[in-house]
Amino acid sequence: MGCLRLGLVPNYHHNPSLLNSRSSLILHKYKTGFLPCSSFPSNKNLFRLITITNPIKLNKVRACSNSTEKTMVKAIRVHEFGGPEVLKWEDVEVGEPKEGEIRVKNKAIGLNFIDIYFRKGVYKSPTMPYTPGMEAVGEVVAVGPGLTGRKVGDLVAYAGSPMGSYAEEQILPADRAVPVPPSVDPITAASIMLKGLTAQYLVRSSFKVEAGHTVLVHAAAGGVGSLLCQWANALGATVIGTVSTEEKAAQAREDGCHHVIIYKEEDFVSRVKDITAGQGVEVVYDSVGKDTFQGSLECLKLRGYMVLFGQSSGSPDPVPLSAIAAKSLFLTRPTLMHYTITRDELLEAAGELFANVASGVLRVRVNHKFLLSQAAEAQTALENRQTTGSVVLIPDASL
Ligand SMILES: NC(=O)c1ccc[n+]([C@@H]2O[C@H](COP(=O)([O-])OP(=O)(O)OC[C@H]3O[C@@H](n4cnc5c(N)ncnc54)[C@H](OP(=O)(O)O)[C@@H]3O)[C@@H](O)[C@H]2O)c1
Question: Which of 320, 318, 314, 285 lies closest to 299 in space, CA to CA?
């Protein structure tokens, strides 16, 4: 249990991604460890949500661990590119954390479409063999020499680099791990770190969604799509979502899509033109790529933003500049890593995300859980469009 300290809180209400005062207070506590006077003692529930000590600061001061013992754990390993069958359940050595590192025992691991790109060799893994996975939540079990601000027993989350979360334990750079608020359980946290941080930079940075905008979100019932639609709706946008089935359409409506298009059955370009009375949308968030990219450009209004952030159906064909010039469009192909480079950026984004989850602005859908050893089945389901919301892997030994 952390300690409560009272202090004055700056006005976070200018921040449009913090959609109610509860989110603002939770973010403030996340970043500073302080609870503003104005929120105490009237809101006991809020106090429970945001009690965190020593949230962020990391220093290198003294050695904390000098063990040379080998730690063997179970992990998924890939020795060659290919289908889900190349995911092997093996024993691996974790080693001890070095300076600036921590060793984390994972409680829950997020499954992401990017894991499939790496498995297939669409993206190149830095090593071969390698352990996949770019998102997890776990307990710190060892701290490298010279690190303070992080201790054994802390619950932390990470998303992105380094790869290797499909493992019972892994080594992480301490500055890529963020504290998980007590209000957010490990499975929920693991299901939103990568996908939620992506939704955060998409609506807040790559294109700033505002009230009055109309946005088009492809794969609206997916892991990122679900959070993206909710966030865009809460910011006041009119949200149009595309999905492949009626079941996914129902979820997308619940997640704040004002209009849902089943793009396997309907021409989404003409539907978007109808919905917007021929004007088009301010921004398209396109993670499907090859099958949708050309149509997405057609859906944009003059000076609209094409945000291509994935390629679940394959890489789109090259775009001639004339296609951009036709409507003075903006085109970006962003990646999460470039929006969370500094620790401050990472903490700001994670703070907003956790605050909006804790305050109920974002509903997290952990719709599928698999044992870590069954990662191949989990990836098969994701690849075959059989999932909605988030998919989480649970280390076998923790059950
Ligand atoms: N750039 C970044 O920073 C960043 C970060 C995170 C994720 N991403 C990208 O965001 C996308 C979503 O990731 P996610 O993990 O949340 O996955 P997801 O959206 O849960 O799953 C992919 C969805 O894409 C749709 N899809 C359309 N055509 C497909 C095809 N040919 N094969 C497979 N799926 C197809 C399916 O939805 P329907 O059945 O409704 O069509 C499917 O459920 C991925 O492309 C991923 O690479 C990018």
Answer: 285
For residue 276, the domain's CATH number is 3.40.50.720
User: Is the beta carbon of 313 within 6 A of some atom in ligand 1?
Assistant: yes
pLDDT averaged per 10 residues, the chain (length 399): 30 47 67 43 32 47 50 96 98 96 98 98 95 98 93 97 97 97 95 98 98 98 98 98 98 98 98 98 98 98 98 96 96 98 97 96 97 98 98 92
Residue with tokens 């719709």: 367
Using a 6 Å cutoff on CB, does residue 292 contact ligand 1? Answer: no
In ligand 1, the atom with minimum distance to the C-alpha of 243 is 40
Report CA Rg, the chain: 21
Q: How many angstroms does the Cα of residue 222 sit away from the middle of ligand 1? A: 6
Closest Cα partner for 164 from 227, 225, 98, 92? 92
Q: For residue 108, what is the DSSP state?
A: E
Residue showing tokens 């370009």: 269
* Ligand 1 center from residue 264 Cα (angstroms): 15
Measured CA to CA, the distance from residue 224 to residue 336 in angstroms comes to 12
**Paired tokens of 247:** 């079941």
pLDDT computed for residue 286 by the predictor: 98
> Domain span at residue 125?
60-180+367-398
Q: How many angstroms separate the alpha carbon of residue 287 from the centre of ligand 1?
A: 6
329/391 same-domain check? no
Instruction: Tell whether 41 is covered by a domain.
Output: no
pLDDT at residue 188, rounded to an integer? 97
Domain contains 38: no
CA of 304 to the centre of ligand 1 (A): 22
Q: Is 335 in the pocket of ligand 1 (CB under 6 A)?
A: yes
Atom of ligand 1 nearest to the CA of 113: 15
Is the pTM above the cut of 0.85? yes
Distance between Cα 333 and ligand 1 center (Å): 15
Residue 80 sits in a domain of what CATH number?
3.90.180.10
Q: Are residues 216 and 328 both part of a single domain?
A: yes
Which helix (H) or strand (E) segment holds residue 317: the answer is none
In this structure, the residue with its CA closest to atom 28 of ligand 1 is 313
